[in-house]
Amino acid sequence: MNSFASRKLLTFGLLLIAVANAFSQQNPISVKGTVTDQLGGLVVGASVVAKDSKGNAVTVTTDNDGNYKFHNLLPGRYQLIVTVSGFNTLEEKNVEIKAGKPLTIDLQLIVGSVEQVVTVDNKGVSTDSDRNADALVLGQKELEALPTDPDALAAALQAMAGPTQGDSASGAQIKVDGFSNGTIPPKESIREVRINQNPYSAENEYPGWGGIEIYTQPGSDKYHGAAAFNFSDESLNSRNPFALRRAPYQQRGWNFNLAGPIKKKRASFAVYFNRSASDSNAIINATIL
User: Fold this and answer.
1) Among residues 101, 136, 172, 285, which one has the fewest Cβ atoms lying within 10 Å of its Cβ?
2) Which of 167, 163, 176 shows the shortest CA–CA distance to 210?
């Protein structure tokens, strides 16, 4: 009985050893290594391909530590190919893999050259002001965020145009429908604003000046118009901390525009009216000597 029990125990031990060996050899490592650059930095996400003599390929990717591993490769000669963006492709040939003998092959990549192709033709050359790449174009949506008062609108456009060069102290030159030295029309009548930020553009009347080009709404086959009245006084202003009361102030603005057909599809008209008035005072604390 003791002899039978000993044989059973020995058989059970041999089975345990066989199972342990089977588990340990489930995923044997054939080739492993680290992919780095010329300065020794780890290359993460590189594609490493192991290709045998028959053309069969196995692909792995380097991990966060730049390491790669190939498991269960059949014995034979292989070619290792490493590719990653920004580096030249590396090919390691005649890598011999033997059964039960894992290889450690560290691979070093060389930074690839940057190639840039610039094609120049005459198709993109234009002297049309509508295709000026230096112009800032304000459409209806952008104009809604600007002030309604013409003076405040002009100040906002001048601020967007930026400082001018030369002797111009009044800022960028404003043109309305191609005509300079005109007044800014009501915002409701403006179709588009182009701010030419090139001070030496051929479209500008004087060199060194920026340009603000305003295009008004064309006439239409339907009547449309708008009227507005703006009012503000000192009650809307903050109080001067050095004065006991607010200085008298009042600002009023009237805007009216009407457009429509004179003869449909032949002629149209547009009328704009704008007036602003302000009464402004200031409180001065003075010492009489």
Assistant:
1) 285
2) 163
The first and second tokens of residue 217, run together, are 């709404």
Question: Strands 67-71 and 267-280: what pairing?
Answer: unpaired
The residue ranges of every structural domain in the chain are 27-108, 131-280
pTM: 0.41
| pLDDT at residue 267, rounded to an integer | 82
Residue 11 is predicted with a pLDDT of 66
Q: Does residue 62 register a pLDDT over 90?
A: yes
Q: Domain 27-108 in CATH: superfamily?
A: Carboxypeptidase-like, regulatory domain (2.60.40.1120)
Burial of 193 (0-12, 13-18, 19+ CB in 10 A): buried
- Compute the residue count for the chain: 289
Given the candidates 2.60.120, 3.10.450, 2.60.40, 2.170.130, the CATH classification of the domain at 131-280 is 2.170.130
Cα 210 from Cα 174, distance rounded (Å): 9
The two structure tokens encoding residue 115: 């190639």
**What percent of the chain has a predicted confidence (pLDDT) above 70?**
74
- pLDDT for residue 1: 47
